[in-house]
Amino acid sequence: MAGGANPQMTANPFAQASGAQQGALAGTAAGMAYTPSQVQAVNPATQIGQFQNPFESQVVQQSLTDLGQAQEMALNNLGAQAQAANAFGGSRQGVAEAQTRLGYGKQAANMVGNLRQQGFNTALGAAQNFANAQNQANQFNVSSGLQGNQQRLGAAQQLGGLGRQSFGYGQSIQDRMAAQGAQQRGIQQQLIDAGRADFNRYQQTPAQGLNTLLAAISGTPTLSGQQTSSQPGLFNYIQTVASMFGNK
Question: Which pLDDT does position 47 carry in this prediction?
Answer without folding.
Answer: 80
